[in-house]
Structure formats: C-alpha cells, structure tokens
C-alpha cells in the first residue's frame, strides 16, 4: 500500500495525477489525509524544484493607483508582487516560526529591549549594490518617520534607536517587546537601497525577481535576478507575471483556459464547480483572515455607540458563513482575533444575531433614516451578496441599509479608509499585538474605523511590554472586549484562503499566513512541465 502511494505521489508532483485523485486513492486504501499529504511533501522534496519557464498568476486586488513603495501596500497584487522583488530581515514560516532572511541570526537582551541582528553577507540588490546593515537601518528609519504614511509605523514607532554595528543592526526599544522578530517580518518592511529614501517606488530589492514590467492595475512582470542568494529554494521560474483580473468569472476562466497557472480568491459558491475542472486543484487553507464592515467612530451617525451596537446585532453571522463562505470559514465576534492566536481568551461570549436588541439600540441611538453602506466586488469574495444579506437581516430589526456598489478600480484608494461605512478584509497577522496595532491604535496609519481610545492603546502597548504571559493574556482580553463592545469594526466571519492552481504547478505548501502561500507562491512554486 505504501509503495503504491509513494509511486502515485511522484505522479502528482510531475503533474500526471491530480492531488484530489491521489487523496481519493489513499482514502480507499485506508490511509489518512495527513499521512497522504506527508507522502506528497516527501515526494516534492525528492523531486526537487524544476527550473525555467514563465509562471503566471491571475489576481484580484490590483488597481491603477498601486505603487511599488512597500509602505503603501494594502491589497493583494502589490503585496504579492512585492514578495517577488523584496525581502525582509526575518519571515514567518507556514508553521508560525521565525525564519532568517536578510538577517541570518538574532538575539535579544534578557529584558527584550535590545535586539541584535546579524546581517547576511553576499547579498546584492538588483542594481548591483551590496546589501549592508546601513540599508537595513535606513529602511527602518524611513518607515518610522511620522511623515512616511507607512502602514508599519504603528510597529516601528516603538524603536528608541536603530544603529549599524559592524555586520549587525542593533534595535533598542522604548519598552520590552518579545514579539519584535514578528514586527521586523512585516511585509511592508522590505529592505531597499538606502532604505528607499532616494526613490521608494523604484522597486529595487534583494528578492529573486527584478521588476521588468510595472503596469498598475494591468500586469506586473519579474525577471529572474541571476545573482539571487537563495536560488536553491526560491526563484525557480525564469520569469513570473501577475495579470490583474478583478472579475471572479474571468479569473477562473483564465486558469481553466491555461492563460495563468494560479489564481487567488476563488469564490466559495463555485468551489465545487472548480473542483470538477480537469487539470485544476483547489487550495483551501484555514487562516486568520477575516471580512469586515467598518464604521468611522468619529463620523455621524457612527459616532454613536448605540448605533454601532445596533449594526452589530443586525448581522446574521451564521447565515453569512453558510451562504457567503459556503462553510469555508467560521463566525466572527467583532474583534479581529480568534483561538488561532496565542493568548486568546476563549471565554468571551459569542455575539449572535438579535433583531430585538438591534432595534432597541437603533431606537436609543436616535438615528432616523437609512444607513449607507459602500461595497465592491474587490472588498472580498461575495462582498456584494454579503451586503444584501446584511440589508435583509437588518430590515427585520427595522434598520434600513442602503447598499452602494462601488467600482473595483479605485476602491482601495477612494472608498476604503475614506468613506464612513464600507466593507473590507484583513489577512490577519502572526500575533495579537500586530493585528491590534496595525488598525486600532490611535497612531495606526490604517486605523480604518477611526477608533481612538487611550485606555485601549494603554492595554495593547502594556501587553507588548509585559513578559508575564498570564497578565498579557488578560490585557489582550480586556482590549478585545473594548473593541467588541465599543469599536467600529463588525467582524461577521473569518474566511479560509481559497486559491486554485494548475496541476502543472509544483512546490505548493499550505500557508495560513495568507492567500497564495502567504504571497510566496510565485517565488516558491515551479512548473513541472
């Protein structure tokens, strides 16, 4: 039995047998999916990556306003293309562990305030310049500048000093932070020559691909960087290309027709149909991503907490998970964390759909008239349908939701984080500190609910510096309750990442850090044929 499956596993890696058929055969032989997948992983290692060819992805999440400046990345296309040409000091692995990249090792002082990173030698930028610790320092300085508008500002603003010392970079923090390796692994902190201070939109990094074509909202092409230091594990194709396909039907058709080898964000409602397409594999990975309705707490009528509570009780979460996610996810509780995060408190009561409570708080708010909600197909898969379901469930509480469908191109620059009530998504972050800091602290560039609370900030910053794990857990619980009961974010559901690839794609590894292998699919995968 084992020999047969080993033989078949190599056919899967070579693209001669579908993963689905392999798992079906394994089940028929009484083998668990876990063991069968381990055979596939072993076969992939044995076969090794195939070099050459052009690997193409069709992605939703691109717009004409996209920039190559890592500080600005807010959607899938710039983020995924950025993973192709840029790298950070450290990286979070699919299993949640810290992996060395441009920093080959690191250590902290006993109080977790001073961190030293040894910078890898022999790494060159795409312009031929050698990477130096000074480039690391300059990158962190640029993102820490209050005028940078960097999405990483909330993280790096805790740095007291950043200095180069020989072949190391030393970061001294204002307060202790045991999670600092996750901070410097944030995808906005791509290391650039002189930190990108000269031209942050130039797209020059140390990654496996050099920027060859950059047509925001249309296509992006990367050519193999011949001097790439990590070519044994990344950069297998000679060229990678991202084609922006924001329409879900067109995206699926492009994969089915062979125009692209992988796509992101397969809509749950068509997963079963896609599974039946010859030569296509569905990649379904549970993660920390979540879909949200966001209300600006400082803008009428959403500056009234009773109205915000009314809107929270008016969501039928179970219905959304079933009808929008097709069961590929779980209900949310109006906070951006779940049991998938360390130090999560599982004793917090789950908020449920309650038209009576929604009607009570709506009346108490004193608001009269409709509530305008903006949405778009690019907000998340099924966002327009979700808005309509919300409209129906709120109507049962006497609340009128007016849904306005915005165009996909420009949604992230003109609607999200600008209009007072809209829909969006978050990919989640490795730690609670990061997920709270990036969007809910007062100084967060992406505070898209305009939630400004000194007591909340004090809890998050205090937890960041607290080394007693029991105390830290309680602080996160207290902060989560404030956000749940008084914040402007409505979290109806946590989504799985559902991507799809051609069977010719090798090297795929499920990664809960984000869609398309945490953005690494184009750099880590290869073409078998």
Brief rundown of the structure:
The chain has about 525 residues and is of the alpha+beta class. The chain is built from 19 helices and 21 strands.
Arithmetic mean of pLDDT: 94
Q: For the largest beta sheet, what order do the strands appear in spatially?
A: 8-9-10-1-11-19-12
Quote the distance from N terminus to C terminus: 28 Å
Query: Strand percentage, roughly?
Result: 15-25%
The count of β-strands is 21
Oligomer: single chain
Number of helices: 19
Name the structural class. alpha+beta
Radius of gyration: 23 Å
* Sheet with the most strands, sense and barrel status: 7 strands, mixed
Q: Report helical residue fraction.
A: 25-40%
Give start-end ranges of low-pLDDT stretches: none
Shape: globular
Please tell me about this protein's structure.
This protein is an alpha+beta fold. The chain contains 19 helices and 21 strands. The longest helix is centred in the C-terminal third of the chain and has 18 residues. The radius of gyration is 23 Å and the shape is globular. It starts with a helix and ends with a strand.
Topology:
Elements lengths: L1 H12 L5 H10 L4 H15 L6 E6 L16 H10 L4 E3 L5 E3 L2 E6 L5 E6 L13 H12 L8 H4 L2 E7 L2 E6 L6 H5 L24 E7 L3 E6 L14 E6 L3 H9 L5 E2 L7 H5 L4 E6 L4 E6 L9 H9 L3 H7 L5 E3 L23 H11 L5 E5 L7 H13 L5 E5 L5 H5 L5 E6 L5 H6 L16 H12 L3 H18 L2 E7 L1 E6 L2 E2 L8 H4 L2 H4 L1 E2 L2
Parallel strand pairs: 1-10, 1-11, 15-16
Antiparallel strand pairs: 2-3, 4-5, 5-7, 6-7, 8-9, 9-10, 11-19, 12-19, 13-17, 13-18, 14-18, 20-21
